[in-house]
Amino acid sequence: MSSIQVYPAIDMKGGKCVRLYQGDYDQETIYGESPFEMAKKFANEGATWIHLVDLDGAKDGEKIHANEVIRIANELPVKVQIGGGIRSKEDVSYYLDNGVSRVIIGSLAISQPELVAELIEEYGGDRIVIGLDAKDGMVATHGWLETSGKSAVEVGQYFASKGAKHVIFTDIATDGTLQGPNLKANKELAEATGLSIIVSGGISSLEDIGAVAELAKISSVSGVITGKALYNNRFTLSDALQKIN
Description:
This protein is α/β, with parallel strands linked by helices. The protein is built from eleven helices and twelve strands. The protein has helices at about 35-45, 55-60, 65-75, 90-95, 105-110, 115-125, 150-160, 185-195, 205-220, 230, 235-245; strands at about 5-15, 15-20, 25-30, 50-55, 80-85, 100-105, 130-135, 140, 145-150, 165-170, 195-200, 220-225. The protein has an eight-stranded parallel barrel, surrounded by eight helices. A hairpin with a 4-residue loop joins strand 8 (about 140) and strand 9. Helix 1 (about 35-45) packs parallel to helix 3 and helix 7 (about 150-160) runs parallel beside helix 8 (about 185-195). The longest helix is centred in the C-terminal third of the chain and has 13 residues, at about 205-220. The radius of gyration is 16 Å and the shape is globular. The relative contact order is 0.15.
């Protein structure tokens, strides 16, 4: 199998590690450990990357969990990518200058695409990741509370032309549902943009991890984010890492 990167996900809300159902802030499950302790656990299981999301930040447009993010990036032997609440060049600089490897830009990519293109030019396509969260192919923003009038393919193609390298593509309909990822939509986005696609949403089993790895053989899909399946003990991170190697 083609080796893909597995990104264990930690969603942060109110200082705790939580998961939402289809992005609904009223349908959350709290997993007791602090984000740092959860990241440490994943690092001990072999994670090389941690995918962090500041849910409060995504909703309110501020870096609510910045201290926790910086601590994970600097005290654990993992690389960190962070999304949620990143609404300015200052937010991006703050994270990238303090040990974070990648910043994920979602809402800002829709509202201020020229600024994001400048950030890609300044920091490089490896450090600025475009987060495309889509509902029926259309991009949603601001913690999935608003839908834009742009398609994921259209936005992906624009940023590919500006030097972006990575896109995290989340199909909102499958996120947190444990019903399997939308492989068709990810394949279409990969083919239309040529970008390195990190699959997010719906991962429920080791078979799903394997299916993404198979897709990576014939497309520019390069990684998979998994959260709820890990927390619900569908499989361990060690199992997932073994599945892709």
